[in-house]
Amino acid sequence: MQSKHKPREVLCIDAVDWILGSDAPLAGSIFTGIPDIKDIPLFNNMKNSTALQRTEDYLSWSTALLDALFRRLAIGQVAIFNVTDAKVMTASGDIVCWVDKSHLCSLSASKHQCNLLWHKIAINSDHQDNCSPYRPSYTHLLCYGKQMEYKLSQFRTPDVFDRGAMSWAKAIGLDACIMGVAFLRNVVGTPVVIDPFCGHGTILAVANYFGLPSLGIEICVRRARQALARDVSSIISQLSATRLKQLGIVSADNGAYDEDKCMSEVCTNDDQDEDPNELVSQEAALLLACSEGSDIGCSGVPHTH
Predict the structure, then answer these.
(1) DSSP state of 289
(2) What is the pLDDT confidence band of residue 288, given thresholds at 50, 70 and 90?
(3) Are strands 8-11 and 78-83 parallel, antiparallel or unpaired?
(4) Where exactly are the structural domains of the chain?
């Protein structure tokens, strides 16, 4: 299903099946997250296993997923991961393991000749002195390239920065999203941004805002609709030109960002030209895709953005 405003498509199917179902190279670059162990019904339903056993199974599951993503990454493209580590605890509150997701990403990347191009830390500056019970208060933003390199002058951005507004507690921060999209747009020149766990669609919307087509995967019908309709223009328009430049958003001639020019490149249809019958058929296709894609509905693999 495609957005009526921008070149955005959201497939309402199981992302894991979609990733593992083919070895064909992807048509663009990846920008996504990795679901947490607590958010996956498969591991939460393992009542007779210990926390450490569930963690070991989760690590195997995540590794297989990452291996498939890096294997399908096309030469000259990149994979950006927005990941937050997890503290695995027993019912009594004892920590038994720290899940280092950046380590998982790097292990899988090395198997498929993908190099780490940059590693940023996104923080919540309002809570930087707090100690959260389950998730650290910072997020890794990691970029891996397959036979890809770039000049430092192309992407001078902070190594540690405020992640920006979030649509929910585990969402990607808007500023982190903008920084990733800036690299995909200005340095990689990717033909499409792919988010296999798109959730609310923040990455898809930011990619569209800055002139890039996007493809998202979301198993839940409700969230797939949200991802298709997500609009971040009012939020991004409140950011200063200085902040956008800090995040890597500059024009081709290193001048100020031109919103009107960028939006004119993205928009494909006018609302008045939309065919009502086409909208009905698109809605039906979305529901059909969800029913055929998996039988676990909205309780399946969760969204991350």
Answers:
(1) H
(2) very low
(3) unpaired
(4) 8-299
Structure tokens at 101: 């997701």
75 closest CA partner among 28, 118, 119: 28
Please give the helix or strand (H or E) that residue 99 lies within, else none: strand 95-99
Residue spans of alpha helices (H) in the chain: 15-20, 41-44, 51-72, 101-111, 174-183, 202-209, 221-229, 233-236, 241-246, 259-266, 276-293
Helical packing angle, 202-209 and 259-266, nearest 10°? 110
Side-chain half-sphere CA neighbours of 180 within 13 A:
38
pTM, whole model, 2 decimals? 0.80
Q: Please state, as a whole number, how many other Cβ atoms lie within 10 Å of the Cβ of residue 17.
A: 14
d(CA 9, CA 204): 9
CATH fold of 8-299 reads Rossmann fold (3.40.50)
